[in-house]
Write a structure and sequence with these properties.
The protein has eleven helices and 17 strands. The strands form four sheets. It has a six-stranded mixed sheet with strand order 4-3-2-1-13-14. Helix 2 links the parallel strand 2 and strand 3. Helix 1 packs parallel to helix 2 and helix 10 packs antiparallel against helix 11. The protein is globular and about 85 Å long. The N and C termini lie far apart (about 70 Å).
């Protein structure tokens, strides 16, 4: 049996920037769609038995019709090829409001042939999988709002609520392991969730804050045949060299410059009976990302020093390129941004991050020690040294006062 596992498509997460003249779609959206095409092509060419998608099709649960159409075209190809496709919903696919439809709702509503959506926790048997000799314990993203309504016991603190939700999920998975598994068949645990010890990349910035994590022991339980995970964009096997494989394939394209050095994958899982015989990591080439930084320490040849950090034009062509430049603030006028942008014209996108460094040492009046001054006095002296406007100094001091003492006057504090 062959299973193709991919996750975190996010096909419309970058819908700004240059447009493709032939389709009218953003070039970066086309990058994600090309990766999705590669995945669908491979599924058909390899004649896989199952395509398993572990969540986050779009940027959010309200994709525009154009992107729904593009996603639908690819799912339709799998359906027409007779390949069973199971999709579980991720945090970007669902609404915090329990009654709202999720982003993959139409596949449930219209009963598309060979397509099944898991928008709630469920244990799938061969009867649910068109006779495929397989079991899937499916755990989509569980919104806290729905759990609170089910509890019907007020609004606990977020950490208490997370613990209750984590306990409930643990109990459910334990029940599946102990009561639902047919030991004669392979069983896949498929979840859109964080797992303790997983390595994050830059997707932390697009997640929804504090969240529940599954325990490593639970996902690494040897009763699973294979563990298919989604939610974390960095490709990894959390149980390397051991049984079962616990796989985050990662996102299908780089979401931002923070993922510049990460490779992107989907996986082909080969089952021999109830065991995984081997796993193929299929690399997705995607858009080239280049991230470089330079510190200029000599005024002579200022621009030449920066330009030496540019990649060759052939590597720059069509790439997303970020250049971080550190230099003394006094040399600000030497930086010719227009010249740098001309040099980067071949890039799809050029991000210049300027970091002028200022002398931060503040000299205290003669005979005065730092310990003799209050925090607000030290803050005011520092702000004045970096030429902050007086009215801004007062606003920052007020904010600092609020943070330090809850708005009480400094003079009322005897101990700092």
């Amino acid at each position: 049996m062959k299973i193709l596992h991919f996750s975190d498509a996010h096909i419309d997460i970058i819908s700004q920037g240059k447009l493709d003249p032939s389709t009218g779609l953003p070039v970066r959206v086309l990058d994600f769609l090309k990766a999705l095409d590669k995945i669908v092509d491979t599924a058909i060419e390899e004649r896989v038995d199952l395509v398993l998608f572990t969540g986050d099709a779009y940027k959010d649960r309200t994709p525009v019709p154009t992107y729904q159409r593009e996603w639908g075209k690819r799912i339709k190809r799998l359906s027409e090829a007779g390949i069973l496709t199971v999709m579980i919903t991720g945090n970007h696919d669902v609404s915090p409001a329990l009654s709202r439809a999720h982003a993959l709702q139409e596949y449930e509503t219209l009963s598309i042939p060979h397509v099944r959506v898991c928008s709630r926790p469920q244990f799938l048997t061969p009867q649910d999988l068109e006779g495929l000799p397989l079991q899937i314990a499916a755990l989509p993203w569980v919104p806290r709002s729905g759990f609170m309504i089910a509890q019907d016991n007020g609004l606990p603190e977020i950490d208490i609520l997370n613990q209750k939700l984590e306990d409930a999920i643990t109990q459910l998975i334990t029940y599946w392991l102990e009561n639902r598994i047919d030991s004669n068949l392979p069983v896949v645990f498929a979840a859109h969730a964080s797992v303790e010890g997983a390595q994050y990349s830059s997707e932390r910035s697009i997640m929804l804050g504090n969240e529940v994590s599954l325990s490593r022991g639970l996902v690494c339980d040897r009763r699973w045949t294979y563990v298919a995970l989604g939610h974390i964009h960095k490709a990894q096997n959390l149980n390397e060299g051991n049984h079962p494989p616990v796989i985050y394939p990662g996102s299908i394209e780089r979401v931002n410059i923070g993922e510049a050095r990460e490779e992107k994958f989907f996986v082909l899982v080969h089952l021999d009976g109830k065991q995984v015989s081997h796993i193929e990591w299929k690399k997705l080439e995607g858009r080239r990302f280049i991230d470089r930084s330079v510190r200029v320490e000599r005024q002579e040849n200022f621009m030449e020093t920066i330009l030496r950090e540019f990649p060759p034009q052939k590597d720059l062509e069509g790439a997303v390129f970020r250049l971080v430049v550190d230099y003394p603030a006094a040399w600000e006028k030497l930086l010719d941004e227009a010249a740098l942008r001309r040099h980067a014209e071949g890039a799809l996108e050029f991000m210049l991050v300027r970091r002028p460094q200022r002398e931060l040492r503040v000299r205290l009046p003669e005979g005065v020690l730092a310990s003799d001054m209050s925090p607000l006095q030290l803050l005011e002296m520092y702000l004045a040294s970096i030429k902050v406007f007086p009215e801004e100094i007062q606003a920052i001091k007020s904010l600092a006062q609020e943070i330090l003492w809850g708005g009480e006057l400094e003079e009322t504090k005897e101990v700092l």
